[in-house]
Specification:
alpha+beta, two-stranded antiparallel ribbon, 46% helix, 4 strands
């Protein structure tokens, strides 16, 4: 059964994979960094409450420094 630790590990793997990638632009190479946010469904969640919590998490990620993980 998935849990918050599973979600966190998956986010860390994605962040690591994306961090290893580079983009070439006019002869320059740029590394990629992303912010990841996620949330687990709770027993009392509706589709709306889950979507609202995920949106809040993503908003928090945008206010963090680059390359951060946030899985409340």
């Amino acid at each position: 059964m998935p849990n918050a630790d599973t979600l966190d590990r998956a986010a860390q793997r994605l962040q690591k994979l994306i961090g290893m990638a580079t983009v070439s632009w006019w002869g320059d190479k740029f590394s990629l960094r992303i912010n990841l946010g996620g949330s687990m469904m709770r027993h009392d969640d509706s589709a709306e409450s889950l979507a609202q919590r995920v949106e809040q998490t993503l908003d928090q990620c945008q206010n963090q420094e680059e390359g951060r993980l946030l899985v409340p």
